[in-house]
Amino acid sequence: SQQGEEDPQALSIQEGENATMNCSYKTSINNLQWYRQNSGRGLVHLILIRSNEREKHSGRLRVTLDTSKKSSSLLITASRAADTASYFCATGTRLQGAQKLVFGQGTRLTINP
Amino acid sequence: NAGVMQNPRHLVRRRGQEARLRCSPMKGHSHVYWYRQLPEEGLKFMVYLQKENIIDESGMPKERFSAEFPKEGPSILRIQQVVRGDSAAYFCASSGQGAYNSPLHFGNGTRLTVT
C-alpha cells in the first residue's frame, strides 16, 4: 500500500504566488524526498530531508518535516509557469544497504501566466 | 555522464505477447528499482535488485512478471502474456552502494501499450 498521501490532489495558482503541497505518511521513515515529474518524463529529485531534520531550503523550495505528526510540506515561492508539473513525496526506509522509496499519489500543480 | 537509460521509450504489444523492458543504471550504481505508473497516479514500487540478486519483489505480481539484474548488462523487466491491464509507464531508478539517504535517479520510462 502507498505510504504517502498528498494534499491537495490538484492546485492551480497565478504566476508569482506561492504554492504549498502537503504529504502525510504512516510509518517510521529514514528520510522524506520530494520529486517533480513533467508530463511524459521521469521523476527529477528536488530535495531530501532526513528524519532528524525539521526544515530544508533549496532555491525557491522550502521543505518542512514534522515526524510527530508524520507530515511534510513543500513550499514553492514566487511560482513560475515552468513550475507546472506533478509533485510527489516519497518516504525512504532502509533496506539492505540501500533504501526503499514509497511514493504518494502526487499533486498536479498548474501555474497560470 | 549518462543518466539512467531505459529502452524502448514506447512499446506496443498485443495481448498474449511478451514485453521486455531494459534499464541501464547510472555508471557506478549497483542498485536498481522498478516502478509502475498508471495515468494520473503515483509510482507503485515493484522490485528492488542488486547485481545478480532480487532484494525485494513485494510489489511485483507473482504471475507473468519477472526481473533480473545480471552481473553484466542491463536490468530487464519481463512481462509474459501481457494483458490490457499491464498498459502503464514503467520507470527504472538507480542508486549507489550505501545510498540509504540519497536520492534515486530515474530514467524517462517505457510506456507499454497492450492492444
Descriptive labels:
heterodimer, A: 113 residues, mainly beta, six-stranded mixed β-sheet, five-stranded antiparallel β-sheet, B: 115 residues, seven-stranded mixed β-sheet, four-stranded antiparallel β-sheet, 11 strands, 0% helix
How would you characterize the overall build of this protein?
- The complex is a heterodimer of chains A (113) and B (115).
- Chain A contains no helices and eleven strands.
- Chain A has 113 residues and is mainly β.
- In chain A, strand 7 and strand 8 form a beta hairpin.
- Chain B is mainly β and 115 residues long.
- In chain B, a hairpin with a 2-residue loop joins strand 5 and strand 6 (53-56).
- The N and C termini of chain B lie far apart (36 Å).
- The interface between A and B is medium-sized, with 29 and 30 residues.
- Termini separation of chain B (Å)? 36 Å
Q: How would you describe the shape of chain B?
A: globular
Number of helices of chain A: 0
Order of helices and strands of chain A: EEEEEEEEEEE
Could you name the ranges of chain B where pLDDT drops below 50 across 5 or more consecutive residues?
Answer: none
Task: Set down the secondary structure blueprint.
The complex is a heterodimer of chains A (113) and B (115).
Chain A: E1 5-7, E2 10-14, E3 19-24, E4 31-37, E5 43-50, E6 55-58, E7 61-66, E8 71-76, E9 85-95, E10 98-103, E11 107-112
Chain B: E1 5-7, E2 10-13, E3 19-24, E4 31-37, E5 43-50, E6 53-56, E7 65-68, E8 75-79, E9 88-95, E10 105-106, E11 110-114
Parallel strand pairs in B: 2-11
Antiparallel strand pairs in B: 1-3, 3-8, 4-5, 4-9, 5-6, 7-8, 9-10, 9-11
